[in-house]
Amino acid sequence: MLGKEPKSPIWLNISKWTIPVYEVDASTPRRQVAPFEMKHWNDRGGHGSCFEQPVPIPDHAAPGPLGDAHMALVDYQARKAWDMFLVHRHDDGSWDSFTGMTYSLDGDGVFNRRDFPVKDGESIHLYGPGRAAGVPIIGGLIMHHEIVAGVIEHKLAFASRWNAYKEFVHPATWTDGFVDSGLPEGCIVQLDPGLDLGRYNLSPAAETIARAMQRYGAVNVDVALGNVLYGEGLYGHPDKSWDGLLTGNDLRCIDP
């Protein structure tokens, strides 16, 4: 349940406002990513956070096409991920980004609040994280291969219109919420495990997601215009598509 907040359908961000993920390795071209107005771009290493340069970016990589322009790069051989927000590729082939984080795939998937000296009234984006809650952007993402396989074995990430003002809980390290007595960013919500999903005539993909919500729940990571979950953005992957698998409306019949 989504507590006592106003009722709203569950939507899926799969074609916009979500995260494209690109696998990289030692052979991927390395590119310098310039800072774009980030407050602590040059000295974040002293705060315990870092953005390793040059960055492995494939030729076909494309950030999210709308406002947030996220992009994630994952190197399974080196066991690292690069995480960016408001990243842009320019016509001359150069790149810049508002945020940047590099972190281990073998960690606990949670950033340390002490690494970000963010102050009241600031956004944690100024210090590196690409999510307003100060968590990795790949955390909780519904991946295309998971839907194809029919199983998700982790918590999901969601955003809500009704996030609490100046309240957050672990694993969040900050918040952009603005609703008094709203949902703290970082909180976990769960679809009732006893809910009979058969009554909703869900698509196989939607049922896979709903079952993950029943078993693992979803972590509140950001503000949105409603209650939304995040599916992998396939913008730079012409070999993969959500068509015929999943639409943004496939869970809206479930009233939280």
Could you please describe the fold and organization of this structure?
With 256 residues, this protein is mainly β. It has one domain. It has 2 helices and 16 strands. The strands form 5 sheets. A 5-stranded mixed sheet has the order 1-16-11-15-14, with no helix packed on it. The protein has a 4-stranded mixed sheet with strand order 2-6-7-10, with no helix packed on it. Strands 4-9-8 form a 3-stranded mixed sheet, with no helix packed on it. The longest helix is centred in the C-terminal third of the chain and has 12 residues, at 204-215. The chain starts with 9 loop residues before the first strand and ends in a 26-residue tail after the last strand.
